[in-house]
TrEMBL record:
It catalyses: 3-dehydroquinate = 3-dehydroshikimate + H2O. It comes from Ruminiclostridium herbifermentans. This is 3-dehydroquinate dehydratase. Homododecamer. InterPro entries: DHquinase_II, DHquinase_II_CS, DHquinase_II_sf. Its EC number is 4.2.1.10.
Length: 144
C-alpha cells in the first residue's frame, strides 16, 4: 500500500473562518475527512498534518524518508519564500505534489511565484478541496 503524507502549512488551521471568499467555508477537518475517505477508495495509507511552524514542516519532511512514497504539500504562504522547505523537499528525494486551495496565479503578484514548484513533480491549484483529491489521484498513479 502506497503511503502518502499530506502537509498543511500556516494559517490553514483557520480554514472556514478566514477569508471565506478565497478559501471557502470548509474547515481543515472537513478537508482531512475528504482526504481520508478518498484515500481509502484509492487504496492509499495517508497521514494528514498541519503546522504553522516552518521548522516543524521541515522536520516532518526529513522524517518522511523511508516511510512515505509521496508527499502532498500545501505550504501556504511558505510556498512563496521558504527556501528551507524547498531544500527539504529536494533533499528527501520523495516525489512531492504542491497544492493550493486558491489559484495562486490569479491572486496578488507576490503569490504568483512558488519557490517549491521546481522541486515538486507537479502543482495543483484553484480547485478548493478538490485540489487535495486531485493530488491523491496523482499520487496513486505516480510511479515511485
Amino acid at each position: 500500500m502506497k503511503k502518502v503524507l499530506v502537509i498543511n502549512g500556516p494559517n490553514l488551521n483557520l480554514l472556514g473562518v478566514r477569508e471565506k471568499s478565497v478559501y471557502g467555508s470548509e474547515t481543515l477537518l472537513d478537508i482531512a475527512k475528504a482526504v481520508n475517505d478518498e484515500s481509502l477508495k484509492l487504496g492509499l495509507d495517508t497521514d494528514f498534518i498541519q503546522s504553522n511552524i516552518e521548522g516543524e514542516i521541515i522536520e516532518k519532511l526529513h522524517s518522511a524518508r523511508g516511510v512515505y512514497d509521496v508527499v502532498i504539500i500545501n505550504a501556504a504562504a511558505y510556498t512563496h519564500y521558504s527556501i528551507a522547505i524547498r531544500d527539504a523537499i529536494k533533499a528527501i528525494e520523495i516525489p512531492a505534489i504542491e497544492i493550493h486551495l486558491s489559484n495562486i496565479h490569479s491572486r496578488e503578484e507576490f503569490r504568483h511565484t512558488s519557490v517549491i514548484a521546481p522541486v515538486c513533480v507537479g502543482q495543483i491549484c484553484g480547485f478548493g478541496k478538490m485540489s487535495y483529491i486531485l493530488a491523491l489521484h496523482a499520487a496513486a498513479n505516480l510511479q515511485t
